[in-house]
């Protein structure tokens, strides 16, 4: 009897102890726009901070992979001309480009061969793709930079997350998104124009219950919309002044599992600015006007009574009502002003 | 229940009949020969005695009441009616006055005697309860004015039931809705709400906080009540709706639960509303009541009879057994009730639209013609075709439910809704019967909103923001040359082609420690806050953990916080009204704006007064907290005053300059 009962018992006893943490997907969006980073370098008097960031990021991704054998990573770059999946590689591009570049790149063994295979797979692809990306960037210096690549990156990440979660439905994959951006002063201003796409991302992220974390390096401490993003999605907002110790930041603050978000106290600093920006002037507004069609926020009554975002015409009477502002105590004052002053 | 039986009275065989139709009820004994009768009016009977079941003799003795003023109504036609004295000392009153009258009957069948006995018991106890009630009423007449109704006796298997009514008339009157619920849309209009003083008063009574605000602003500071309410129309409307809701008709009888009391009686509590509700729901009861009260019996007797009747059980939805004891008079209405039911069924029948009315062609009725369905297909009927009454009960319940629903039809503007719907009664039917297989499927139509993200706008704003940059930050914007960018890209590329040494990424120890400390300190600060807030899982927002504990902790004494709060709400109230009129663009409002402006100035001085008082009286620390509390409102009032001043100067520039 004992012989039969014992193993059964042990088996059951082991189970709760060996419960594996549910696997999770980490999607990172990194802003590599060279202009921003060069600006940052100039300001801090350092060189090539982007490299430090990328290295720290690679280690961070490896660490995530190391947590659980089923863990997955994805890396999306937002660059000056658009976005690019760095890992996993885009298969369509792959065939075309790899054949072309095979000769020059494949013999460069950038990553040491002794590395753990899962790390190496990811890291090699990343470095390769980054290399290609920077080559592209070299060509596009001086071109007009796209505005909302970061928001585009987040959208792409959400789409990817949603797809993978559906594919992996059986293992109930948890997912989170991390945005790594460099905040120059100008970059912060540009962010203003990303308001609508970022808001859309927030809504989708809350819907698929995917927290979005933000690490902002340099620039101003606050980042209105990215902070709103983290606040709405249960994410963490971290502002780092320099790239020193970035890996430490990432590993202390950025490894909170999505399932623990409700309970754990997050290392957010300061309070979130919930204001939005004016579509026309880019000013952050607390009280303003809003278009009833596209919800575009304005701080002034737009010229021509037309919404600058969606071209819908505003009702003249409503505009007249808004413009009616001029104050009240007039005519009567002319009579009563004397009257009052006499008293 | 048998009301007659053979009995021997004074050794003459005869038949006893109990006549409940007479009021008061009578018991008549008639000799078989028909030459002798003996009538006993039952409300004069005080006691009823019967030989026990064990005894061989079967006798029933009725002992009459002893009354001071001699009003014996029992008369004997039989010549030698000699009253026999109660042997068991029945004259417990101990009054030696006239001896009670006794009537003695003997039976030859115990069952018959038992039947007669229980019927008599029931009737006699009913009369007795009446008397007790009358006495009580006489005594209580001075004290309780409103309480109408009273106890009555009702027998149920030899027990007695007393019925108590609680005077509920006053509460019914006070619950009259404050608005006209029949025309809800109309009564909830802004003008009606603002004119409804009664409603406003009761809302003020109801909401203490609002009352305080009203006192402060309207009574003490002179804001017009119309203004006060104009901004609270929504609140008024909500309150009106909330208070005007009332309980609709419900299954009253099922809520009436007889309670057994100590004296072997069954008590039924019945309130005025319940009686009204019964009458409303069951017209048959109303009819029975109208027919019999007060002609045949008093109100409480009616209810006592009703609750012991079969009619009551039927209406309540219980199965009627052949052996059930009922009430002779009330039970007569059962057959009438069936007639009522039939009428109800007709009234409640949903009119079938002509478009799909199969009954229109009676030939098509499959139930009328053809074979009789098998007994398994006939609900509520067993093999022999006997109905157990379940179907009737179910039907009755359904009827009741439908009546309840229809009773609400005219409430809350629903009549209007129905009229609207009936404009095209067949339209909906037709639409639902349309064959649409070949029609194109409905496609959701979205309006495309084209968002302009024009480079032009961006360029414009770029200039604007850059200008702002210069003003805002002391740091000059770093100009990045394309060479610098190129250089950095080249280094990155060259770096990427070289061996990547990831072991160097880890920061040195001191940096790591610093970073750690930084993150942990942030967590610590947040943890303190997190203690005060509980995350609501469903809302995803912070909510207060304990209901009612809305207040954050304050160092200030309670009275001070309270006065701060009142002052704050008063200021906000004035600010609100000031802006409403200030921005209205209607020059007629100018005077009102002016008075509100003065009120605002008063508010500023009141605020300053309070702050300086606190500073003198309570010390700097508390004054600082107090200032922190009131600073926002002070700032906003100052801003409003400033705006007014500027606008005033602007408008009257010429006049001011000319002076």
TrEMBL record, chain A:
The keyword Nucleus applies. GO terms for molecular function: zinc ion binding. It holds the Pfam family Tfb4. InterPro entries: TFIIH_Tfb4/GTF2H3 (IPR004600), vWFA_dom_sf (IPR036465). GO terms for biological process: nucleotide-excision repair; regulation of DNA-templated transcription. Residues 1-20 are annotated as: Disordered. The keyword Zinc-finger applies. GO terms for cellular component: transcription factor TFIIH core complex; transcription factor TFIIH holo complex. Its main location: nucleus. It is found in: Nucleus. Keywords: DNA damage, DNA repair, Metal-binding, Nucleus, Transcription, Transcription regulation, Zinc, Zinc-finger. It comes from the Eukaryota. Component of the 7-subunit TFIIH core complex composed of XPB/SSL2, XPD/RAD3, SSL1, TFB1, TFB2, TFB4 and TFB5, which is active in NER. The core complex associates with the 3-subunit CTD-kinase module TFIIK composed of CCL1, KIN28 and TFB3 to form the 10-subunit holoenzyme (holo-TFIIH) active in transcription. Component of the general transcription and DNA repair factor IIH (TFIIH) core complex, which is involved in general and transcription-coupled nucleotide excision repair (NER) of damaged DNA and, when complexed to TFIIK, in RNA transcription by RNA polymerase II. In NER, TFIIH acts by opening DNA around the lesion to allow the excision of the damaged oligonucleotide and its replacement by a new DNA fragment. In transcription, TFIIH has an essential role in transcription initiation. Belongs to the TFB4 family. This is General transcription and DNA repair factor IIH subunit TFB4.
TrEMBL record, chain B:
SUPFAM superfamilies: BSD domain-like, PH domain-like. Residues 458-468 have a biased composition (Polar residues). Residues 65-78 have a biased composition (Basic and acidic residues). Residues 65-103, 138-162, 453-479 are annotated as: Disordered. Residues 262-314 form the BSD domain. Its main location: nucleus. Gene3D superfamilies: BSD domain (1.10.3970.10), Pleckstrin-homology domain (PH domain)/Phosphotyrosine-binding domain (PTB) (2.30.29.30). It is found in: Nucleus. GO terms for biological process: DNA-templated transcription; nucleotide-excision repair. The keyword Nucleus applies. One of its GO terms (cellular component) is transcription factor TFIIH core complex. The keyword Plastid does not apply. PANTHER family: TRANSCRIPTION INITIATION FACTOR IIH-RELATED. This is TFIIH/NER complex subunit. The lineage of its organism: Eukaryota, Fungi, Dikarya, Ascomycota, Saccharomycotina.
